[in-house]
Amino acid sequence: MSYLLSVIVLPITDNKQPAKCPSAQCPIPNSQFPMSRPTLYIAITNHGFGHAVRTSSVAAKIQELNPDILLIITTTAPRWLLESYITGDFILRPRALDVGVVQADSLQMDQEATLEKLREIRKNQNSIIAGEVNFIKQNRVGLVLADIPPLATRMATAAGVPCWMMSNFGWDFIYRDWGGEFVEMADWIGEYFGKCDLLFRLPLHEPMAAFPNIQDVGLTGGNPRYNNDQIREVFGIKTPLEKTVLLTFGGLGLEAIPYQNLQQFSDWQFITFDAGAPDLPNLINVKNQQFANSFPILPRPVDMMPVCGRLVSKPGYSTFSEALRLEIPVVSIMREGFAEAEVLLEWLQNYAQHQIVTAAEFFEGDWEFLRQPLHPPRLSDKLDKNGTEAIAQAVVDYFQEGD
Question: CB of 301 within 8 A of CB of 196?
């Protein structure tokens, strides 16, 4: 992985739309930036799609509440993913500010490669931070919101602006569980998290003890943008809810989903976003080009959830959170060696209709678990569903108070 440390200053035209920059190096006189426009720098962790999904849902809400706030989003997540949640304009700054976990797919982790990338980030941290501080100052950023790169706290402090964070876990929690040299990395990261001005702690969380100032909020995620009848009509879904299943495994997917098991469920309808899925009579591939012209924006997993009686997934905050917000039952595979997974599954069992299956049952079994009744939530309480709105409103209020 290479890190681009040069500063890109992106011009803003009088109508507040990002102007075209002819090259990666595009220094613009400060006079071209509107002095009065509030600017939010959003840093998203370099790991999977889930962080980008939940942060984009917050960014979209901020934009809805106050369209005048300029969003600068720093992430390696693809633009199309961000645009599936954020329908207005934003500036994308492609930078990797942390590592997360190096993975072959949504379940297979490479600890050795992760440690190598962590060493590289730590070695180059001063250069990375200096580049972002320069960018933040030149673009008159008023607030940093991070999910959840540790370097963001030092960047914000050096630039003289607050750093707010949002997450349900910290990378120190993940790395410490792996032992060895990862413990030292966890200590280093925990020190940076200790400089965070305010953490919006999402549900499905670990204690996150490194953070000095914590505000608990509700579930985050997007809302379905299409009605159920439209989804059923375009995709030709005629099966009853209890026999309609969404298969979704995050941005990295799974290497070998046993699609042959679908032959045992000929009167069921399965839905996937896997571009490599086989052509089967009872499997709808949302990414198939035949559906592209039926929607202004291709449906996301959250758009498909309401027409499904359950979804089958791996432990992941964003998938679980959007399902919980819509009260969709979840069938989850277990995930070994990732500390967050155990926490997520505990919360899932407490608050959702659910099934937990082993990797062997999923990859080697015949999927008979789908014919078994779902387990009810262990608790009768409901989780707050308004985390997206709460975080967005806090950001909007911050800029209004600063006017």
Answer: no
